[in-house]
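Tip: read the tokens left to right.
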């Protein structure tokens, strides 16, 4: 694998990227970063921490996509792979589609759309090994010495880490909490009021599970109570599901990663902070559909978005 990666880096250094996938080309085709809604047929660069992988979207839901990984030639491929010819993509070279590694990925790992394939090609990739004879080349590597088993394992490991990229801590999959913080003896009203710098009504609302709790405050209370942060968060209501879905949409990825780099925080921490900030803006407003949460996130991020670049 080391020799193969060294060879790929050498190849990349001596070959210019096609105009269509340069920053200027992407902006011309898809608009500013985050302007594209994920949909079937798009090829996205996914990224989380050190893991980066191209994927072809086959289906999308409100916050997830079913996809198959894509690798750029020269590369290995297995018997379930199809080869998309250079003439049918923006990459300028044959592209391997790993049809046997279909997976579900959360929108929060989608980083940049880089291409949009024709429906005929997407259907062939979706059928995989059952594609019509002669429609696309299948299987085996061509003229490049690779360990296909190692490459497949590497792709599978990346997909698994991407699929399990941490969501916002305030994303509760279940219903409302069945217990509140009053069950933790160390967290009395005066203690919560002092630790979090809240008024008495605000502290009472926290104890009675009447309001979501930012991750930073949950950590403070967990330390005092001698329990895990997850235990504290399980005893308070989560942020509205529509808000979490919106803040994890790739339209906000540029701003989230920008703030994470600037503040030396993780993406998850920044996304949580943005969600809590948008929720605070809604304190005296009614309504909570996707469009309203989008507007509140926009207002919260305006100082950063005003100077954004592609």
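Filled-in amino acids:
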């Amino acid at each position: 694998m080391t020799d193969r990666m060294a060879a790929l880096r050498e190849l990349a250094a001596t070959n210019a990227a096609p105009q269509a996938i340069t920053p200027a080309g992407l902006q011309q085709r898809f608009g500013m970063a985050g302007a594209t809604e994920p949909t079937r047929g798009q090829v996205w660069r996914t990224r989380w921490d050190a893991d980066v992988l191209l994927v072809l979207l086959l289906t999308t839901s409100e916050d997830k996509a079913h996809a198959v990984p894509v690798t750029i030639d020269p590369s290995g491929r297995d018997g379930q792979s199809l080869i998309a010819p250079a003439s049918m993509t923006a990459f300028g070279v044959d592209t391997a589609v790993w049809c046997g590694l279909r997976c579900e990925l959360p929108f929060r790992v989608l980083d940049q759309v880089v291409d949009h394939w024709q429906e005929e090609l997407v259907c062939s990739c979706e059928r995989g090994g059952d594609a019509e004879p002669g429609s696309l080349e299948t299987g085996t590597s061509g003229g490049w010495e690779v360990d296909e088993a190692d490459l497949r394992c590497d792709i599978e490991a990346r997909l698994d880490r991407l699929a399990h990229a941490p969501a916002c801590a305030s994303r509760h999959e279940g219903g409302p909490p069945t217990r509140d913080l009053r069950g933790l003896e160390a967290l009395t009203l005066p203690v919560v009021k002092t630790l979090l710098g809240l008024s008495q009504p605000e502290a009472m609302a926290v104890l009675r599970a009447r309001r979501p709790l930012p991750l930073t405050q949950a950590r403070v209370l967990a330390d005092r109570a001698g329990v895990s942060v997850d235990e504290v968060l399980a005893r308070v209501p989560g942020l509205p599901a529509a808000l979490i879905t919106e803040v994890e949409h790739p339209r906000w990825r540029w701003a989230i990663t920008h703030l994470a780099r600037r503040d030396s925080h993780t993406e998850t921490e920044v996304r949580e902070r943005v969600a809590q900030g948008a929720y605070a803006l809604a304190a005296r407003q009614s309504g909570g559909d996707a469009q309203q949460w989008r507007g509140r996130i926009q207002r919260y991020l305006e100082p950063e978005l005003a100077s954004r670049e592609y």
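The CA atoms of residues 7 and 13 lie 10 Å apart. The chain has three domains: 1-139+146-164, 181-234, 241-308.
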